[in-house]
Specification:
This protein has a four-stranded antiparallel β-sheet with strand order 1-2-3-4, with no helix packed on it. The two termini are about 55 Å apart. The chain contains seven helices and 44 strands. The protein is mainly β and about 650 residues long. A hairpin with a 3-residue loop joins strand 30 and strand 31.
Length: about 650
């Protein structure tokens, strides 16, 4: 009797201990306050990415993002090397890299010019102009000077030369509101400030305004207009920069089949360029009128001095792209096609055309890629032949990450890489011959607008418990269901104790030989959603809505992604504003919990979407609704879950 009493006391102690474990789910020990279980370092979706190679051949990837952040990423693994977050009222307008330094221009009513150490992200020096000067509301541009630590910048209605750690400009030139200046081209002794000329009654048609400035004195050498019916953002115009070859503006008027080439600093175009010589095939005039030009992203640290641009055109219903390079024959400059490819899509997005060139030993290497309007990216890699050594395309789930919006090429440790960005916040790096990313970043959560927690259903690991709990008489009694869940918990606890406190996971109801194996490794491949929690309610899902159309569910236990849904209306991302759990998890119920997402489409109409909260799938064909109105506010009523 005495022994039996002792055993009863032990059983009672175990029962109390397990019940106590259930209670601490709702509180924290003092030493747990402020601790972070996991976190994600984010930079936001890049609006500009610049790969850069230093003189010591070290590389980096630098970005300006839509979260107004300047960031440096490790090119080998995508991790954040450093980041600088700018104030909301100080938008970053320009980023340039040279000799291990990064130059930014930011601000609207107050202009800031800053130079950063590209390796560490520390501030080297800065200059700012108060709001009461002529620096307001300009688009902004900035450039390093050749062979100098000085910089020149356009801000508002002024053009200035700045030197490190000097509070006033070396000189300042008033632009007198003659244009919206967005581009600076620096040569040895002069700088060309280029913008869209202000329309006048005498000259109402758009043109480029060019001001040539002496870098030593800040005086105007000449001022003129060029390129009729053109602007800097026109798809039929590019600006080419080269220390050896000089700088040029190339454009085609809308109804003209001939390309004009203008050498900056001269008042007239030097020569004309014809399609047949560039594309190396005969084109009919209607085909010539489809041609567009696009500037090419290149690594400024590679010092590839030959000017290059991309030309797109359509022939026989097929879109084709050629990369054009300027070269010298004696004293004469010529243009030639260096590589080309075609696409089945109607148009190739010029902003995604990228070319890289680097000498590898005695062999010159070229690579080219292009983003197509269907949201795909493809690339070709060449050595000294016309046959590509590598071809490839990025294959992934667009329903999760959205279509590709831009791509570029960069080198790291002598190896060529393809960097891809999608509208759903994905940044991924691939090898030219690979199909799976070498690394990727998911920046969608940097644009989160709302978040809710979802209680996951408790695990059901006992066939006996499942049989009892599915009995209609049992389901009708919440008290019985509650008792049965605790019975199952006691069984889990007993197994954990009898196994010598081994690798049994009390919270998930599953054995694990390696605790680390419980972490879900993130991958671009579709993953199995987390649909079951633990016995005590520790494990939940945090469901995020974002302004870029992504709705994602993350495990609160380890931060891994359970599911992702990319919401679009007519191909445009839905700007999600609110997320609500409108039906919660029910024990052993055939009806899944629901999450309702409210946002707006591109026209401002209200979008209401109902998803399975455990899988992210639409609950049925009528779950995506476009309302004929634009909501002012969304309220959640204290209604009972159906």
């Amino acid at each position: 009797m005495l022994g039996g009493t002792s055993l009863s006391k032990v059983a009672l102690s175990v029962a109390l201990a397990v019940f106590s474990l259930g209670q601490v789910a709702h509180g924290l020990f003092p030493d747990e306050a402020g601790r972070i279980d996991w976190h994600r370092a984010q930079i936001g979706m890049p609006t500009k990415i610049v790969p850069y190679t230093n003189k010591d051949s070290s590389t980096g990837i630098f970005a300006i993002t839509s979260r107004n952040t300047l960031a440096s990423l490790n090119p080998d693994n995508g991790e954040i090397t450093w980041r600088q977050i700018f104030d909301a009222d100080e938008p970053i307008k320009a980023l340039k890299l040279c000799d291990g330094q990064a130059l930014t221009l930011s601000g609207t009513n107050k202009t800031h010019v800053r130079v950063w150490n590209a390796d560490s992200g520390s501030l080297a020096w800065e200059f700012f102009q108060p709001a009461d000067a002529n620096y307001r509301n300009g688009s902004g541009a900035a450039e390093f000077l050749v062979g100098s630590k000085d910089v020149v910048a356009v801000a508002g209605d002024s053009f200035v030369r700045l030197t490190p750690n000097q509070s006033t400009p070396v000189w300042e030139l008033a632009l007198n509101a003659t244009g919206a200046y967005k581009r600076i081209v620096v040569e040895n002794k002069v700088a060309f400030v280029i913008g869209n000329a202000r329309p006048t009654k005498k000259n109402p048609n758009p043109k480029l305004q060019v001001i040539e400035v002496d870098l030593k004195t800040g005086t105007v050498v000449r001022k003129y207009q060029v390129a009729s019916d053109q602007s800097l953002d026109n798809s039929r115009l590019v600006v080419l920069e080269s220390k050896e070859y000089g700088s040029y503006v190339v454009w085609r008027e809308e109804k003209n089949i001939v390309w004009q080439i203008h050498r900056l600093g001269m008042t007239n175009p030097e020569w004309e360029m014809y399609h047949a010589k560039i594309v190396q095939t005969e084109l009919m005039p209607p085909d010539m009128l489809t041609s567009t030009l696009h500037e090419i992203d290149t690594d400024p640290g590679l010092n590839v001095d030959k000017p290059r641009f991309a030309m797109n055109y359509i022939k026989d219903g097929k879109t084709k792209t050629v990369v054009v390079e300027m070269y010298r024959t004696g004293d004469k400059l010529e243009m030639r096609k260096i590589v080309g490819f075609r696409s089945d899509d109607a148009v190739i997005a010029g902003s995604g055309v990228s070319v890289s060139a680097k000498n590898s030993g005695s062999q010159p290497e070229r690579a080219v890629l292009a983003v197509r309007t269907a949201g795909d990216v493809s690339w070709r890699r060449y050595t000294d032949t016309k046959t590509p050594t590598h071809t490839g395309e990025f294959v992934y789930d667009k329903g999760t990450y959205g279509p590709v919006t831009s791509a570029l090429l960069y080198y790291t440790n002598g190896e060529l890489r393809v960097l891809v960005q999608t509208s759903g916040g994905l940044i991924a790096a691939l090898a030219p011959g690979g199909t799976e990313p070498l690394w990727f970043r998911d920046e969608s959560l940097a644009h989160a607008t709302d978040m809710v927690f979802l209680e996951l259903p408790a695990p059901v690991s006992s066939a006996e418990y499942a049989a009892k709990a599915t009995d209609p008489s049992v389901l009708s009694s919440p008290v019985t269901r509650y008792i049965l869940r605790w019975v199952e918990t006691f069984k889990s606890a007993a197994s954990w104790v009898t196994s010598g406190f081994g690798a049994f996971d009390l919270f998930s109801g599953a054995h694990s030989s390696d605790p680390a194996s419980r972490s879900v490794a993130e991958s671009l491949a579709p993953k199995t959603p987390i649909t079951v929690g633990d016995h005590f309610g520790f494990h939940k899902l945090s469901i995020f809505g974002t302004s870029i159309g992504v709705v994602a569910a993350l495990s609160t236990k380890e931060g891994s992604r359970s599911w992702t849904r990319f919401l679009t209306d007519n191909g445009t991302p839905v700007a999600v504003e609110n997320v609500f759990v409108t039906r919660r998890s029910q024990p052993l119920s055939d009806s899944p919990p629901l999450v309702t997402v409210v946002g707006r489409n591109a026209d401002g109409n209200t979008i209401v979407v109902v998803l399975n909260a455990l899988t992210g799938e639409l609950i049925d064909e009528s779950a995506f609704n476009v309302m004929p109105f634009s909501h002012a506010k969304v309220f959640e009523l204290p209604a009972v879950d159906p």
